From TrEMBL:
<feature type="domain" description="DAAF9">
    <location>
        <begin position="8"/>
        <end position="95"/>
    </location>
</feature>
<dbReference type="Pfam" id="PF23319">
    <property type="entry name" value="CobW_C_DAAF9"/>
</dbReference>
<dbReference type="Pfam" id="PF25204">
    <property type="entry name" value="DAAF9_2"/>
</dbReference>
<feature type="domain" description="DAAF9 CobW C-like">
    <location>
        <begin position="111"/>
        <end position="176"/>
    </location>
</feature>
<dbReference type="InterPro" id="IPR056414">
    <property type="entry name" value="DAAF9_CobW_C"/>
</dbReference>
<dbReference type="InterPro" id="IPR057478">
    <property type="entry name" value="DAAF9_2"/>
</dbReference>
<protein>
    <submittedName>
        <fullName>Uncharacterized protein C20orf194 homolog</fullName>
    </submittedName>
</protein>
<dbReference type="InterPro" id="IPR040342">
    <property type="entry name" value="DNAAF9"/>
</dbReference>
Length: 300
């Protein structure tokens, strides 16, 4: 087996394709006129480290001029020579199925169809689609979405829409469909084309395109109060009655010994009262949230 090398030593899987048992001849088609060029020497050393026995052929711009070089490239037997077979099965036991240490030898595109019953939020959907391009990963490309197509409803319209988005080109299409007699009960769905896609992962992605569910508010504690809240408590209660032995000079609180304080002597009590009242509102909000019940995008 011969392999043409364009001196792209960072090209994915280049070394595996040039390794022992896989390639018997490597043809260099660039920079061959400058055999001492640093890049040329670097690539040759790199390939030689992966395949000590391969024949190197220099063919500027792909021009192979020697008969013996042509015979090496077109050899039908070199790939099945005993030493090639032995190296291939020892180094890459899964080679015949395209399995290498760095992953599959080729991309395996899969298609996932996800159905749902509730409307999406148009701005969120558009934003999430446009974000797919920036989330594309290099090898092994797992999780990449390259195309989205389907029929959905948005919260701003009762009409069924046909949507399509191509991640690489960034083209997004949202076209209203002419309603038919059966469209009123048509479930929404999206079809995703990509690599290593999972239904759960796509459902999580879709949930972020729908109206976001409200979450329970956490209860307040003294440590979670913001400086603004502390200041507000002070401003609201700074003229409250003082304990015996204190007076307020308009700026600070002074005791009978002349010690000055920036906050009211009962400030700790004021804070606790504020937290108690605030947490009553939090509990009421959380109870109402539980009573309302927020359906999931994929609920019937």
């Amino acid at each position: 087996m011969s392999l043409v090398c364009y001196c792209r030593f960072t090209f994915p899987k280049l070394l595996e394709q040039c390794s022992q048992g896989i390639a018997s001849t490597v043809v260099f088609t660039g920079l061959t006129a400058e055999q001492k060029h640093p890049l040329m020497k670097h690539v040759q050393q790199l390939v030689r480290s992966a395949n000590p026995t391969a024949a190197f052929i220099l063919a500027e711009r792909g021009a192979v001029t020697r008969n013996e070089d042509v015979n090496l490239i077109l050899s039908e037997s070199s790939f099945n020579e005993p030493q090639m077979l032995r190296a291939r099965y020892v180094l890459y036991p899964g080679w015949c199925k395209g399995r290498f240490f760095s992953g599959s030898g080729s991309l395996v595109l899969t298609q996932q169809r996800v159905a749902f019953n509730r409307p999406l939020e148009r701005p969120l959907f558009v934003t999430r689609c446009k974000g797919l391009k920036s989330s594309l990963r290099l090898t092994p490309f797992r999780g990449n979405v390259y195309n989205v197509w389907g029929k959905v409803r948005f919260s701003d319209s009762e009409q069924l829409m046909e949507v399509s988005y191509n991640t690489v080109s960034g083209s997004l299409s949202i076209v209203p469909l002419i309603p038919g007699p059966k469209d009123t009960d048509t479930p929404c769905f999206l079809v995703f084309d990509g690599v290593g896609l999972t239904a759960d992962g796509l459902k999580d992605w879709l949930r972020l395109c729908a109206k976001q569910r409200q979450t329970n508010k956490p209860k307040k504690t003294k440590s979670t109060l913001s400086p603004q809240e502390i200041k507000s408590i002070h401003m609201t209660r700074h003229l409250d009655p003082l304990p015996p032995g204190f007076f307020y000079n308009g700026y600070q609180y002074v005791d009978i010994f002349g010690e000055k304080m920036n906050f009211h002597p009962y400030m700790e009590e004021f804070i606790q009262e504020y937290i108690t009242e605030a947490n009553k509102e939090v509990e009421q909000f959380n109870r109402q949230l539980e009573l309302q019940g927020q359906p999931d995008l994929f609920d019937p």
